[in-house]
DNA sequence: GACCCGTGGTA
DNA sequence: TTACCAAGGGT
């Protein structure tokens, strides 16, 4: 067991990917550790999200809020706007809750142990282990999609996910070394991301190829097995775009719970098989030729766009007018950004 | 365990 | 174009 983890660490010493939040293996071996705040921020952003998508957001957040105390003191709307486009917006809401809990309950310092980290909002089993291992070099075992795949192949596990998780966790734990656990955690994930990939794994250049039971059995490309997913339905809806004569846009902050919770958006109907009209004010609505299409995790959405212009004395039943100069489309979640772009492309007042 | 929750890249 | 997939967490 120890042999395999050492092979992986030697591979990582040469092939570690460079990331803005990462301390390279040479520096860690010399005793350097990363800022726990930056590691926590990166791990939350990386939940179900690719490294490529995270890089710029991480830099932006570190520039706007360099410490956990800065983030804890930020306005909710500013954080949600900065997160716009990254998805899974409950992460941003929990990010703020967590930062404020660290300041209020832990003296503004991230706790180093797994069990205490686990009590914080937005930190689950994976992120608690990742922060403990990467930021504090604790011998915790991370189990993410990469590690699941590497373990399933290394030991030729055919039990489908997610039922296989306990088994894969036990295998991953047995492989975790006491030396350099932080580098080891990152090494397994780098291996999964670059060599032991979901499709067409590069077994020929894998540092664990001689030990890999799935490679020997020829089953690596079909592992890990997964229980089939349900088909995603199509839902429809109506988006109402209102432009006031002075250029202001009618927007609303969505309910903090549920889909796109806490994010800015245009007023709209429900999203369902048979959406009911729900205009935010009385007006002569014009239908846009184009339809906004967007796919969420569990359904496809087709949005009909109705637009209108209203005078300065208009009083909407829902939402609020945002002056043209205060409005930034980048603060919108992607589906609302698509609506905005279609309106801007089709109408003279874009 | 089941379900909800975004987005962009890739084949 | 469709379907899968990515450093998961909350309920």
TrEMBL record:
Swiss-Prot/TrEMBL cofactor(s): [4Fe-4S] cluster
Catalytic activity as recorded in UniProt: Hydrolyzes free adenine bases from 7,8-dihydro-8-oxoguanine:adenine mismatched double-stranded DNA, leaving an apurinic site
Residue span(s) of domain HhH-GPD: 45-194
EC number: 3.2.2.31
Molecular function per GO: 4 iron, 4 sulfur cluster binding; 8-oxo-7,8-dihydroguanine DNA N-glycosylase activity; adenine/guanine mispair binding; metal ion binding; oxidized purine DNA binding; purine-specific mismatch base pair DNA N-glycosylase activity
Top EC class of this enzyme: hydrolase
One of the protein's GO biological processes: mismatch repair
Keyword set, alphabetical order: 4Fe-4S, DNA damage, DNA repair, Glycosidase, Hydrolase, Iron, Iron-sulfur, Metal-binding
Record-stated family: Belongs to the Nth/MutY family.
Protein function: Adenine glycosylase active on G-A mispairs. MutY also corrects error-prone DNA synthesis past GO lesions which are due to the oxidatively damaged form of guanine: 7,8-dihydro-8-oxoguanine (8-oxo-dGTP).
Protein name (record): Adenine DNA glycosylase
Organism lineage: Bacteria, Pseudomonadati, Pseudomonadota, Alphaproteobacteria, Rhodobacterales
